[in-house]
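Async update (no meeting this week)

Hi team, since we skipped the sync, here's where things stand on the single-chain job. The sequence we agreed to prioritize is pasted below, unchanged from the tracker. I ran it this morning and attached the output directly underneath so nobody has to dig for it. Comments welcome in thread, and please keep replies under the output.
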Amino acid sequence: MAAKKKAAKPARKAAKKAVRKTKRTANSRKTARLWLMFPQRLITKPVVWELSQKFPVITNVRQASVTGEIGLVCLELDGLANDVKKAVTWLERRGVSVEPVEINVIES
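Output:
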């Protein structure tokens, strides 16, 4: 019976460690560079400002091009991983197309 108790302790420790690791991942900082495509109806709206007011993320416009028909913005979001994810979801629900920047063409 003592052997069972000893075997259970490492399993419990591993489970606790996995939970702590998951929590740390959700609370870890993340920087995401994203391409945002704004439809015509949102071009004149302060969407990036609204995003910065609704979510505790730092926004940094790296590049932008706006015409009468479409807006294209390269936006850097920095914050807790969970907050960045929520901010991206909010953008998509507003009608903004969000894609990750594949190649780091914009250097600091």
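Quick observations from my side:
The CA atoms of residues 8 and 14 lie 10 Å apart.
The chain has three helices and four strands.
Reply here if anything looks off.
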